[in-house]
Amino acid sequence: MNDESPVDQKYNFNKKDYEALRSLMDRYWDNDIAAINYDIEMMWNTLKTKTDDGVQRFIPLTARFNSIKRKRPLKEEICDQIRLKKCLWRKYIRIKDTLSRLQYVTQRNKVKKIMRNDLKEEQNMVAQQYKSNPKKILEICKL
Q1: 118-130 pLDDT, tens per residue?
Q2: Where along the chain do its domains lie?
Q3: Pure H helices in the chain
């Protein structure tokens, strides 16, 4: 088990032991259900407890991968547009109709255009300041 907090960990399903988990869950459930007098809440709690215990025993934890995708901070307007795109994507996945797909595709293209224009603006600004700020050009070249 890792020394990190539970928030920084997640289950690593690639290194699981599903055979052991399956053998733990392979039992005659009627005896367990009869022991609690067929109460739905108690049956659910029993099943959930056994499953959670098996997952904790047979699926190891791993550290989360915190990767920074963007090398530079984005403007607030761009972040708002990205949030709207995500919202439209979730709506499309939930509803699956052509209107929501069209809205998502339009927003996706808009975000892509805004991101490209923002990158061009930054590159033009750096190009104009190449004599006064040569270190900035080296930073961009390293990216």
Answers
A1: 989 988 888 888 8
A2: 6-63, 76-142
A3: 18-25, 29-35, 40-58, 76-95, 98-128, 134-142
